Batch of 3 targets.
Target 1
Amino acid sequence: MNTIKRQIRSLLPPLATIVAATLMSVWLYRIEGGRSLPALWLSNGICLAVLMHRGRRGAVALVTGACCTICCTNMVMGLSFGEGFVGALGNALEMSIALSALSRKDRATYLETPYGTKRFIIWALLVAPLASTLAIMPWLILTGHSRYGEIGSLRFVSHALGTALAVPLTMEVLRWHREPALSRRRTRRCAQALLGLIGASALAFCQPTLPILFIVFPPLVLLALTGNRRWVIGGIIAVAAVGAIATSAGYGPIHRQAPFPAWSAMLLQLCVLSCMAVVLPLTASLEQRRRLGRTLRGSEARYRMLAEHSHDIVLLLGADGYCKYVSPAIQDMLGYPAGKMVESSLESLIEEGSQAVARELWMQLLQGVPPATALLRMRHADGSFRDVEVTGGLINEEPDRVVLTLRDVTARVMAEDALRQERLMTDVTLQVIGDAVFTLDREGKLEFANPAGRALLDRSIAPDEAILERRLPLWREGERLMQAHPASTALQTGMPEGPFLCALELKDETRHAIECSATPIRSDAGAVRGAVLVLRDVSAVLELSERMAHLAHFDALTGLPNRSLLLERLDIALARAKQTAHHLAVLFIDLDRFKQINDTLGHGPGDELLQQVADRLLSVVKSVDTVARLGGDEFVVLLPELSGKPEAAVAATKALEILSKPIRVGRRELQLSASIGVSMFPDDGDDADALIRHADIAMYAAKRHGRNDYHFYTAAMEANAQKEFDLENALRFAIMRAELFLEFQPRIDTGSRKIISAEALMRWRRPDGEICLPDEFIPIAEASGLILSMGNWVLKEACRACKAWQHGSLQGVSVSVNISQVQFSRDNFLSFIMESLRETGLPPHLLELELTESMLMEPSESIQQRIAGLSALGVKLSIDDFGTGFSSLAYLRRFAIDTLKIDRSFVMHMTEDPEDASVIHAIIALAISLGKRVVAEGVETMQQAAQLAALGCHEMQGHWLGRPGNVAQLAKLARHGTHSVSARTTQQ
């Protein structure tokens, strides 16, 4: 009901206006004596303007009221009911057509845009009046009007003029309140211009000449330039009112020029319409420019203020990428003055890695693709780089103009990177950490569990429980933790709990030892909002600690007591022996050649061998005795209660016998031997360290005397050990002081009696002038590991000397060098040979390496590759002391050996012992059959040389042929040696 009342109240003003227009038409009609209908033509326009302004709200009621008013007005002016009703129906049809066409879209912008004006002219001024006129034409013809053509033309023109005049004026009046008030100064000027317009209108409409009517245009244009739409509409209404009054009173050019009143009204409307056509577009354009200017000035001021005071850089760039405007913020952000950046490009400030992103952003901006944002790295004036977030857009009013906003986000990027890195590290830590981590809410319900925690949850005894302390129950000292659960305590007290040891109960498993702790999680306000529970499985740690405690006193491989426990037991046994005055023995056992077995078979079989040795030693000792392993292949047996040395000797003999029995390791059966040193209390010492050290010295004495035996400690052994120690120390200084030198012993060809090779022999000249032969210090060098550096030095010095003597009488004479096991087993041995040859410039065929048979025993793939590499290089190989070691036809066939050297022990007695001669004969025959050369060492007599030559020996070496000497002596022997040997042979 209220809605209907509001609609009725809204329709009253337009209906009142229509009634006023019709009453004015009646008044004019009576004044003109029934000859004028000018105001009636305005009714359709007024009604249409109201409908265009309101839309279709109340359109039926408004059109109906307007048509009824028009019908009554027609009958008052003397037309019949039929004529009035048909005219009203025509008006209704005209308003309906115009309203239907103009109310579909853009009704709020009619007469304000070219498109709206075009639609208004087509539908309201042409189509609708023409359609309504054509609709009533049949009725005019049927009723017998003879002037139906003139009446129809007059109706069409008058309705079009009325609509063209009434609609703009009415719509401007309806929008009257929207116009802003003018200043007092402009109001005074507008009032003056309006008075001038009224005066010009009175003057124009009181004189009889038609062209003088145009004097109203200058003051009307002045009013449009000074005021706004409100004043312009008032001026147009004033012109229309003055013109209507003067024309109705019979004055003015319009009254005089029109043949009848209807044409007079139309001419007046044309005059007013012309004024509207001139002034309204001008006013609209001026107002638009004023508003646009105010808006632009305000916008420019606002945006300039924003740009000048913004912490972000604001840039205006042309299509070429050069800056047209740069805000002052660039000084603080990038360190460049704003004035110097104008008409410059930003490309030089962008880091190379961000160039592609910058180009893509620029293309998006020029294409107008929104939004355009990118993260760039730009160079600061101090050379550092800043992370800058760039946002921009294209200015449509200014083609090829781009606005960019640069914001320094270096701190944000660094914070994000740090946060991302911290988050990544936290995630990775939680994923890989071995501890089970759980996050609980305020009620103790599970929120998060890492992989270790989920693994525990899968083995939970109560998988459906929501409360974690029930799902994974903890036990401590035989009682289940309920109220004292660390998570509950942390949630209740808000304080960290633990860590402490407890047991975790899991499904189908014994309880695990767990270290648990809980820490509350607080909100920003400080309230407890949850807790973090950490469970660490320490069962392995406890087991490891127990194992470490065991390993601290026992050997990990054999389970025997180690040195620490041995010393403890030895101290206890010594204290008891001192009290009871009985003897005590320490047996130091070392396996013979264990390193060779370990290197050949590998560490796995070697460990198995040591375990079996430990078991065998345990089987021959008493329960009160102790068998300990000190490391490697060294064992110690403690005999705490003995009557004397005979009982210790019996124990050592049992150990040797049990160890000498064959031992099966895998598929191999090995024969072992051991060397044992024995020290006695109180004869050899009264403390643990002295007894073990003296037993060790005695063990080395057993090794030096042939191994597989035991020796009791004597004071002389320690003197020898001290002598060896001093010799080793002096040998180290000899290497540093270059006290080592080489002598060369010739090898003579049996047939030509010429020197064809020389063996390099190392000598040591001590500071006192004494010359030490290799037999004195080589064993010490091998035991101490010095043999490697000494052997490398010998090899290089021999190659250098051989290269030097190639330019004299020794041209073509090669050099042979003895190679130690340590040198030959090195992986870089072949590369060292190549480096020595390259460094000295010696041809490979002039170098011969002398190997021992033990190096080729059980050959591995690496040894085969090493020998094949030497052979491919051109270096000759010989077997030294052939016949005294593990002689085998297998390695002679497998390896590229050039020479066999018969040991001097066979040559020494070959003239007296037929068996030695037979062995030499067999070796020479074997070598010849295999294509090898044979060298006999230790030739001391002419008879030995003659017999070797008769057996077919290729080369000979010995003091009878030439003693070791320096290169000069070797060269002299090469010049005169053949004749000397021949003469010596003749004398013999």
Target 2
Amino acid sequence: MNCLTIKKVFLLFSIGIIGIQCSHEEIKEPTDYVDVFIGTKSPGHTFPGPTLPFGMVQLSPDTRNDHTSWPACAGYDYTDTSIIGFTHTHLSGTGVPDLGDILFIPTTGDIQHQSGSAENPDSGYRSRYHHEQEFATPGYYSVLLSDYNIKAELTTTKRIGVHRYTYPKAQKTNIIIDLEHRDPVIESSLKIISDTEIAGYRRSKAWTGNQRQYFAAKFSKPIRSYEILNGDKIATTGSDFISKKIIAALNFDSSEDQLLVKVALSAVSIKGAQQNLEKELTHWDFDKVKNEAKKTWNTSLSKIEIDDPNEDKKEIFYTALYHSLLTPNLYNDVDGQYRGMDDKIHKAEGFNNYTVFSLWDTFRGLHPLLTIIEPDVTRDIVVTLQKKHEQFGEIPMWELAANDTRCMIGYHGVSVITDAYLKGITNIDVEKTLQAMIESANVKKRGINYYTELGYVPSNKNSQSVSKTLEYAYDDWCIAQMAKALNKTDIYNEYSRRARFFVNLYDQQTGFMRPRYSNRTWYEDFNPTSVEKTYNFNFTEGNSYQYSLFVPHDIASIIELVGGDDNFNQWLDTLFSKNFDEEISDDSDVSGLLGQYSHGNEPSHHLAYLYNYAGTPWKSQKTIHKILDEMYTSEPDGLCGNDDCGQMSAWYVLSSLGFYSVTPGAPEYVIGSPTFEKATINLDNGKTFTIKANNANKENIYFSSLKLNGQEYPNTYLRHEDILKGGELVFEMTNTPNKKWGVDSTNRPMSDTQKTVSIPYLTSDYTSFLDSKTITLGCDTKDAEIYYTIDGSEPTKKSPKYIVPFEIKSSTTLKMKSYKNGLISSYTPSIFLEKLQSIDRQKLKNNLKNGLSYKYYEGIFRSVYDFSAEKPIKKGKVSTINIKPRLRNEWIGFEFDGFINIPKDGIYNFEIAANDGAQLLIDDKELFESDGRKSFSFTQKNNIILSTGLHKFTVKYFQCSDNIGLKVLWSGPDFEKKEIDPSSLFHISNSKKNNQL
């Protein structure tokens, strides 16, 4: 039994004694049920320190300072025994570490300018601590720093962290301020403004490529002296300090035992931080701030009231609700100014600007939850995403501190926007927002260019191909729904067709979504349960068992593909019972297992609800309760996976209420089975929606009947509008499943099934040719008719009809459309067919030299696009493609440029083995690209037709960590696969002439 459990047992015992002694029971507030330590033991990656709902400041202890360590993602891990200090920004539940800005720690005695190590805390300023002397609740944290006998207390406003340090008497009293702590520093500065005020700036580069953090701090008593480590020198005088390494030690009068500090943040400027400090907190009353923070949290948490005798479950619930309200985070100053994704200063007018968008995770459950309980925040989130598109050119994938980390896949901002809009949150600029959605869905990277040409992302040309195809198709459906709501018929039709692209990866032979090559053949080495090969290559934090059912907008079509309700039910039964057949204990992304179901990661989160689509909702009820009961506890390790900015918690909140958002973008929720006797949602419109579960207990996990506002309710889904109207949903709970309820197909959740002709395609995989090219077209829909154009116009039935192969002799834009009576016509792919020309070697004269030029980069790269705008650390020449010039083995990038000599007209195959990712361009055209999650053991490869002579040749490569490696191979008409030899590679020594080519 750990110390936290002991504390809980003691608390319950004390409550019991009080209950005996008192004539009435004290009423507990929602904050009394929140245990902020749930999830602080890896893999939950939450932090225990104070913040406000969606607050800019997250003031919390850091026990680790390794910016690349998995357990250090939130800066704090419950198993650690020493605290480095208290920083003002933290991520909640992420799988990658960042933030931890502006570290403060009170000390006594001699000054130390290094943090020291966990193994030897005495080697630095960090201090040991014990959980018995640590306490936290929403909006407040305290701990005794054992090595100094200092009690540290923390609380916050939206933009200000407030510290109260109680020192032992007759000691030298210090505060250490470490601006170097944690992430690599690009630049930093510190200014002594007066004897009670300082300010500073820290610019860092980690997961977020360019984070600017300004701060202003005031002290409740004057600074007596200071020692500032500025670079490698210590200064005791002066007022302005600039260096990558600034660690300040401020000394205060030791005759007073208590010292208060107010620290305001800004991403805009020091002036902005000072203004935040002056306008948001004008007094020094720590307890008043603490009490106001508690009041704020009680107001937010009271939006859902739980009435149930199980105190432990209420603790899990309110902690989950608390975690669901931590992100996104406010990201503008009190005057509305904020830093945009273009690194320029903007002003938020009529909305609050936010940051920290873990969209691949949170679109599923967190944002749908916020549409119910935080509609005003949701509206501002939608506006924020539209503004980010204006500044960045696309809606970011995973935005952090005005940077796109480019982590994960999809363009799921469109899901968040559509879900909000169709649920009545419409006070936005709809034209600009829709345009942002469309442009984000058509960037020419991350496999989207292949997706729109082939109808899927090919395995040989892009990594995570199956996951990307399915998630793009769902996002496209969201765009279609938004367009439909705005009466944009053409846009609706186009994206509805793209939303059907999931059918192109369904393999009838195996019964799974299966990776496919660009020539339309299936990936050979296929195992649907794999978490090793296909997991790392073709899927994103999941396998084919989980992803084969990621078609949330059209489960009915999946049921049809697998052969009907019975087969689909059996498919789900197998999923929840079939064990993994590979060793997965070392894979941090596969956790919370129930057969092939992995609740520790998001691709599984909707699966338990899918029985409702096949007439067996009682099986969903059983499975959901198993997950609720087994995957969540009230201990520090009470989350079975990363909380991922509240998604794991939001799943619990919604599912424990009795429903979940299987298809965000559809204004309805799929009904599961509630776990509390009574839950009341207090809506912002003044109405209440009550959910009752009569006779609810651990055994009664099914319900015999369901009524909405007193009327029998036969549907297995709940409309958002019925929640907003207010009312009562009553479940009659039982331990026996009702196998008749929700069986009829008319009572099942939404499936937007549209019978669409399959996308037409080139039967040849080559888009380049020498003298001429024979065009042969195909379509997987039997008896479909194909019409085409070669003049750039949209094909119709008045265009040429494809009957037999035809020939082209010049570069051509080919567009195709398939038709069949009774079906919606196909999507129109557009393919550029290029007639090749090699570079005249004679024009280069004596400037041609063997080898390639290279540029070397360092930084947190998740894609080859990440370092495209960076300045290289160094440049040089290499005889062949190799990464020997690197200065380290992780977080690096290379770009190799030059020419390759093609000895003979014909078909050539290029292949790259890279960990983590690479891109190959020939004649400035991408042949393939891998943007992460790619093992060195597996290759990206593709064929290309090339003409004799020189062709531009570029390889881009990035490496995150572990198993560094890069190998480029080729084969041709007269030789087998081999590494490219130096004699075939060239560069121009005269850069001026190179730029002229």
Target 3
Amino acid sequence: MADTPPETPKRRSGKKRLIFVVILILVTAAALAVGISLNLTLKDDEDDTASVPVKTARFLVNCHPDNDASKSRCEERGCIWVERTDADKKPKCSFPEAYGYKMAGDPEEHAHGVKVMLTRIDTPPLYGMTPYINLTVAVEFHTDKRLRIKIMPTDVHRFEIPEEAINITSPSQPPSNETRLYDVTFQTDPVFGLSVTRRSTNATIFNTSLPGLAFYPQLLQVSVLLQNSYVYGFGEHKHMSFRHDMNYRRWSIFTRDEAPVHDWNLYGAQPVYMNVEDEGKANLVFLKNSNALEVFLQPDPSITFRSIGGVLDFYVFLGDSPGEAVSLYTKAVGQPVLPPYWALGYQLSRWGYTNISDMWMVINRTRAAQIPYDVQWADIDSLFKQFIFTYDRSEWAGMPDLIQDLHDHHQHFIIIVDPGVGANQTIIAQAKNNSGPEYNMYEDGEQAGIFVKDANGDTLIGEVWPGLTAYPDFTNQSVVDWYEKYVRFYREHENITVDALWIDMNEPSSFVPGSIHGCNRTTWDYPPYVPQILGADPDGKMFDKTMCMTAQQAWGQHYDVHSLYAHAMAMRTDEVLKRVFPGKRPWTMTRSNFAGTGHYATKWMGDNRSWWSQMHLSIIGIMEYSLFGFSFNGADICGFWRETTYEMCLRWHQLGAFYPFARNHNAKGPGETTDFKHQDPGAFDQRFIDIVKQPLMTRYRLLPYLYTLLYKAHLEGDTVMRPLMFDFPADLKARDVDRQFLLGSALLISPVLEPNVTNVEAYFPKARWYEYNTGEEVTSVGQTNNLYTPLEKFNLHLRGGHVIPWQTPALTTYESRKKDMGLIVALDENWKAQGELFLDDGESDVNDTSYSTISFQMEKAGEMKIIPKKIDYSPSEPLQFETIEIYGLSALPQSVFVDGVLHSQQNIRYFNKVVQIIGLQWSVLGSHNITWSVY
């Protein structure tokens, strides 16, 4: 049962209050022209003074989340202490009801929204800081489904994320009052509150009427009431469930080089959440703030945001469904990048190839095993002394020839690029001997002035894999020419003709805290309040495993832009690759990220473990990043750290074959003589190879469908790997499913996630579902079914109502794209289906004249039309639809007409409860019609 939305908090007073609705009169001709109606609800308060007696609040907002919380410290803050048992998760110290700000005067309308001035209620300060007395709340109506709420000090400039990083433009014309989906109301008593509600359902979208609004130089806090507890998002963390636990959980957001193993802040910073409303509609909220922050999830249900810098700049998106909410968000921050087609293939990587012979061994045995395989990756092993854009000409002699061999087999090669540039002069001299005197990355960077500077204006030196390390300032546009020079050096001088770049360690990571000289004890490196981030305990420092917060970058002080470092690196890498490969579609894979990074790079889930539990966590993580605008994402198949097992690696391939990004990657191990064993399929026995081939070949067969999904994500901001509740948002049980997932709307994957298990409890929402391999229809829907899943079996189901394009698989995407194609028609309860196919050359820029789209429409039972929607791309070798497979017919059709001609009965089969119509020989780019009848 959905949670009941909470009431708006009311001031408890003996005085009689009059609550009335004030509809503001438009005060300017411009406002009259656009017809703004705010429907403001104001609570009148007879006492106009800013000082209000302390009263206990209905909602418990933690006033003292620090480890040293005590009754005396709590009361010094003007907050309320309640003794509780250790088992009680409620905060002992909470803000009183009248803690925050009050309105100073009436709201002021303008053409694009409304502005409210606030003044602080007189209460003791927090953490010894001087609060801002006056705040401005600016509400902007951007579209019918989007608004912005910005809280900032009045007449005081503070850091804001630069438009170059994320530019969410305000439309020139605001939406009309008649078409907006939302109303904005204000509360005046006992504290200021702003509430956004959905007009059609009166659902609470965003309500700040809780106590504790605080604004200090290094502490910003606001709490938000929601309609219900169906909350998803926030990252990057190891979340044990896709739906958030709202029982006083706390999550910090600050990019950090930390594997997805513990409950800390991890690689990315994603201050984004979704709330699925009672009726199945959804809203998504983005806090545009790059400072270290944390969120407290409370069972009211509510969320408290605490940031240590910037401003509180919220963007609220109202979708008619979860998918639409994500689409609205990604269209604002940037739709996901479309990877090249070859990137959809199966890929192999390892940190721990001992030399080039080791890599050759893996390549050759993978080919010999006839495993489909498109991309080979190289980690830092191949670099000379871990200096980027080099290769070790001793242990990796012949590397250009290896890459040429990959290219000759229509395979691809990717190298890792860490941001750290080696600054040790001794090793620099050795690198020049290895790669030639032209290799001057550090000297050129110093001359160009593109490295991050310390507080004194000198190049900050940390320590990463190359030892002493300087960090390029990717927020500086001047870094692009320097960066491009060394990508070209690598390809043209070193002859390492890399096809894409893998940017890693870009949180940014450092093996020494701050710098080789440490950090001065400043209020930036040791703030008055420190979120619960990795490395902050016990002395409250911000710079563990990264650079000093006082470091200087073009976009601002590192204190403000730390979590934007990887975002900037992804932007510059994308720009450089577009220069290096003009007219081609660049591909960058990143570890660290921020909101909007998915527009420039794709993402993988980092250094996971070879633990069974990590398989489940990978599903949660990838689905969360779908919310954040990353459509092409995956986790290291078989795990990165530790050694996998036979069964785990096999089951993980059955799962990972259906990740959008499918790469097997593992670590070198803890020592020189104790490397973790190889885990590519060829490292196992023939039985393993035979079993793993099945899901991998199925992936390659379904690549046209997957590629079409990725195109739609790029075009419209759709999700690819998504939770069941995206397609079944009104199904309350589906909202909690996170051990299964959908690829698009048509494919349901229900993997085995534990050892020694041959049965999977799989939930099937109400629809028609078919087992992919057998054609069997699932007879019990709207409930959980027990699926028998022995080791050689994987669970893939088709959803009725969809037409899925496929292609005969081969061992590379290059060869697959030349094969005949076919269609799966999975009939819904009305015997209908529809689908789409996107075609292009797989690598050129996507523009209006470079691709073709084909629509499959079955609007009445027994008749399907193939309709070319746009034909601007023709394959060099003509493609044909050869076969149509129909799921859901109970008998063989008695007559089939293909483009009006009776089809030979010999070309109609009934196999495994699937009707196959073969011998079509249809041009993929042509218009066609097929009808059938069952007597």
